[in-house]
Amino acid sequence: MKTHHIVFDEHEVLHKLKHYLPAQAPLKDFIHHNTLHAFQDMKFYKAIQTASEMFGYKVSLSLDEYRKLYQYAQINPVIFEKVIIAKKGAKNLTLWKEKLLSASYDTQKTARVGKLRANWKQKYYVDLDLIVHPALFRTLCSYLDQGIAIWNFPVSHIGFLASIQEIEKNTFTSFFKKERAKSLLLKENVNIVELLHILVGDESLYEQYLFDQQFAHQGWAGIVSVIEDMPQTLIDQKKISLKELIIFELLLEIDALDNKYGLNWTPLVNRLGAKPINLFAKVVETELDEVLSIWQDAYEWTYYDQVFTGLKMEQTLKKDKVQANHSFQALFCIDDRECSIRRYIEKQDSRCQTYGTPGFFGVEFFYKPEHGNSITKQCPAPVTPKFLVKEIGTTEKKDTDVHFTKHSHTLFSGWLISQSLGFWSAIKLALNIFKPSMSPATSSSFRHMDPFSQLTIENKDINDIENGLQIGFTIPEMAQRVENLLRSIGLVKDFAPLVYVVSHGSTSVNNTHYAGYDCGACSGRPGSVNARVLCYMANHTEVRAILKENGIDIPQETQFIGALHDTTRDDIAFYDKGTLCPENLERHKENKVNFRKALDENAKERSRRFESIDTCMSAEKIHDKIRTRSVSLFEPRPELNHATNTLCIVGRRDLSKHLFLDRRSFMNSFDYEVDKEGKYLAAILNAVAPVCGGINLEYYFSRVDNHKLGAGTKLAHNVMGLFGVANGIDGDLRPGLPSQMIEVHDPIRLMVIVEHFPEVVLATIQKNPATYQWFENEWIHLMVIHPETGAFLLFKEGKFSNYTPITDKLETVSDVTPLLEATQENIPVYFIQ
Amino acid sequence: MTELLNIFILIPIIGFLISVLMPSEKEKWISWTAFLTVGLYLNSFLIYVVYWLLNGHPHLDVQDITLFESAEYKFFIDFYFDKISVVYLSVGAFLTFLVTIYSRYYLHRESGYKRFFNTILFFFIGYNITVLAGNFETLFMGWEILGISSFLLIAFYRDRYLPVKNAIKVFSVYRIGDVGLILAMWASHHLWHENITFFKLNSAELVHEHLQNHSFMGAFISFMILLAAAAKSAQLPFSSWLPRAMEGPTPSSAIFYGSLSVHLGAFLLMRTFPFWDEQISVRILIGLLGLTTALVATPIARVQSSIKSQIAYASIAQIGIIFIEIACGFEYLALIHFAGNAFLRTYQLLVSPSVVSYMIREQFFNYEPRPHTFEDSLPKKIEYSIYLLSLKEWKLDSVMNYLVWKPLKNIGRKLDFLNVKTLFWFFIPVFLFGLFLLYHEEMIPEGVEAYLPYPFSIVGLMMVMKSYSERKSPELSWLLIIMNHFWVALAISFNEHFSLHEAAFYLIGVTLAAILGYACIRKLRFHEKDIDLNQFHGHSYEHQKLSLLFLAACLGLMAFPITTTFIGEDLVFSHIHEHQFLLAFFTALSFVIDGISVIRIYARLFLGPHNKTYHEIPYKSS
Questions:
Q1: For a 10 Å CB count at each end of chain B, is N or C smaller?
Q2: Is B199 part of a structural domain of the chain?
Q3: DSSP state for residue A151 in the 8-state scheme
Q4: Which residues of chain A lie closer than 8 angstroms to B392, CB-CB?
Q5: What is the ipTM of this complex?
């Protein structure tokens, strides 16, 4: 229904804008998410085509890239034809094959956004962005600054616009050049509509104008929108809203025009001519779009198909009856970076068992380090815990580095410092280049918590409350969390004497995106505290009593022990070893050797991607180089993080134990027999979709358009206010991932593989509409493995259909080392005998 | 011993040439070339310095090749070596060496890996020539190389808008500094009647004797030197270019704008100290400039909320103090200060990405809501005003724009009658007529001849101004620059006897470059049809070779020291009399705008976001 006069609804437009703007939090809270989250209510291909048309993003590999992949046999011709037939019918195969392989298309992209405002330059000969952006960005950055400036924004507690007004009122100079903008700013209730009336003059264009304006600097607009919604994400909290930003920007625009034309200019509408196409007009799929989507499908299924062939081969293996006599069990994070370390530990000790689960281990709380004056969340970002765990009794001292002192930036101390410390800098620089080592500048996962500190895990008094948070967990609260965790991963019997709970974190230096390297399930922090907290709970006798009542009998000799795996250095630290009984301590000593060897091997496997390390060297030597790498100032790739992730396997380890997946899979342990109704499965999938799916899609989009959806090369980044990075000093903020993180990534959507009965899985995902949307709209794929028949059932359009792998058989190897040493590129799936 | 000095020029040149020949996909070969070049340099330099110290650290002066000689004019390359050279060269070699190793890994897989190391080595050549220069001419050669390598490094990410825009901005400021140097060279020709070496300047009696009767000339030269130094060292009113130069990969920003390049203004002052030593007013002026800069840059540094601009302004303030130290004659202090500041800022820039994790962790434990700063005790209105002014960098950026670039463009726009048609039907015939008159001087009425150089040089100046503001045709813009050179030659020919030999020396380089460049533009137009100067086109994405070729042509046309025009330019000035300040100024201005206009054409055609959008294109705001 259309009403006759189009009304500009400010509230609605602001809401819509916020929906489309990038939603990346400040650097310290960096968490992966789907870059195109705004389009998630549409089917994947439709969504990316729409986004591309509206904002000019590149949303897939280019036609040439696909064709090259085909040429180099990275796209399987059989699957290629199968996809064409599925989409276009068998009789059109030849025609479409021709189109895909050799037809020429105009692949130039234009964006709808920006068309309206482009008229300033075309018709008024003024480049508003060029004039307005520097002043706007500077003011914003200084207002939001978290601690770079020495002299802070003089007024900041009363909100952005109010602060600007306050300064404008009390100054001999001005934010503006001419009177009009100044008096508009100081007017009571200055509002968007009034300003748009001056600038644009036609209400039907206001929405589009604001989109054009904000998407000319989507980085800054995005961070303002995020901070508006989550002010607590900044340590030095600032009040700001997108509306205030828009008002200030409109004023600057009016001022720029006044400055050029005096008052002799009329609103944009008067010189506009034809109105540009509406930003939200329907997007029609072109033939090129179709061609690209077929290519993408063929590309994805070329990979998936190998995996299913492998899973099938795995099914034919004779499974030995599970032996009860395990040497130890180890819980790892679901993270794809833990995929290979589990394989190596299992190789070192065939009697051990490994499990995967989100790395906060089901315990959600805020953590407060000793002497810290704020708290940090240790669970997935959407969860808001009501518990607080405090660190007490620390012994470590914090190091500082004088090079970060602000005194060097002032006149007189700068004079002294540059003549003294300056020479020390030269030595430090030389040292770091020739012999890199850990320094205060390094962000190290092991520093997150003092290993010898105490944690307030148990709540003894229900009234122990700090800032509205309960200190520690009560016994029933603990028991419930331990039970949930154990049941969700299917570890309910046959406990080994030692159960390791291995969290992870990372170490890097000169890395602004450090938070993205830590554990995503712990809101971008290392998970060490969670590991210790869970172990404390599971070791607690009263907790065990409750668990026993509920049917989980943990033998008395079984002890849980926390650990932290640093994924960059491949080092591991074990916590609270003092609580181990003598027999377990002996066992632990043996296991430790295995862990060490596995970590060496893991370092070797990782090293194949690194140009500076020769993978043919011995594992120990490589491991040393890997450690050095993590603390080298000049190393923009301390590790490759989640690059190449494509799979998520939710099921028993036996499903995929013999597959070499090249660190490409998230792995969540799950036993359908323990969770017949899918209660725990629901929790797992509710996390897998946004977390793993978010990681996967952020990598996907940063890879296909690193300029517009990624952060570009990090080598030129400049840190803005400690919350973001930009190019140069006057550039827009750059959300997304830098090119160094995504360059080896293959843009393939996540394939979630779940072992359970299809009807249970369907019912499970339908419980939560948000989760269901991920699968239904094909932002991630879902394949169910029928536990009894072993059939693969692909979820599509709300239904399951049988899938038979095309590939016959995978190549079998007994040792992957030669493969690793042979190539830097992605390695296909292998079967390890 | 003196002969050995040449190797410090030769090593970088050879290294550079080898690095240019390397295939661009061989990262290891390229980085090894750079590493070996600078490593070899550093080692031999250290040995040399020890040897030099053991031999009583004499001032060395070596007169190298003479490139041009006529009866009253001699252009020769000269090198000079003293403690200032030692400090600048050791700091330079040490930092370049470290940054070379650093960048080997840091730039891995970056497209433009080769370009980066080529440019670093090119810069290193320029740095060595400048620091070792024994006379203004040699120094100017190095100075030009530094300017162009700066441009290339700032615009390293040439597919983005801001780096390219800022590279042009910085290059333009450098070019203003060049006016100073050109005019200082011109005036000192007349003062000394030779190409004076810095070695000779050490003789206090000689300087004293010459300045006694020419105190105005002395002050003029000093002032021009200061202009060049201030532009290069980002002193007022040029300061705002330095933070804007931080667009390349962090190590290049660190070494260039954190340390080496930006301290060269101070070097120029120290190098010429014996010359203005006795001129108290000059010393006061230098001191005052340094002081004002320090006082203005400090509050700007204090309000910066981005890490690189904070370091940049902090460094500018320190260089201001170095200027004061030099003015006071504290040479040793200034040298120590230079080295310390260079090391400190390089390191701070290199670790700048770490600031996030470090400061956040720091704050997590020691967060103070709003630390009290001394500004808080100022009256509110004053505090806010200074804050706001500092936030706007005291409008330094817009001031440059309003005072220099806007007027130039405005004049240029008024010259719309200069188009291809009028060029061919009016100005070329008039030029030919001028040429005709030159050989038939008897036809010129008595007394007129002396004034002819002025209108001719003004016509030349008009040409470049129009070229600089031309928005449509790159061909026209290019032709106008060529014409400018010819008009300048004509003007000078009327001024004094400018032999055919000399004119040819001057024009041959220009002509070759002009033809090459014109062919490049035509070739580009053949492929791309729509090319203009109204926006960046980014054609280096598809036409890499052509882009390189055109860059070479540009260098030729802007009298870069690869053609004879470079010497010709100096030659032209030697024919401007010492009282003809206006003519000297017009000519200098022509040369300067020439360079800017040429670089502008190059940037508009080949750099910036590509106008074909079949691949990933950066936002204009990046």
A1: N
A2: yes
A3: S
A4: 135, 138, 173
A5: 0.93
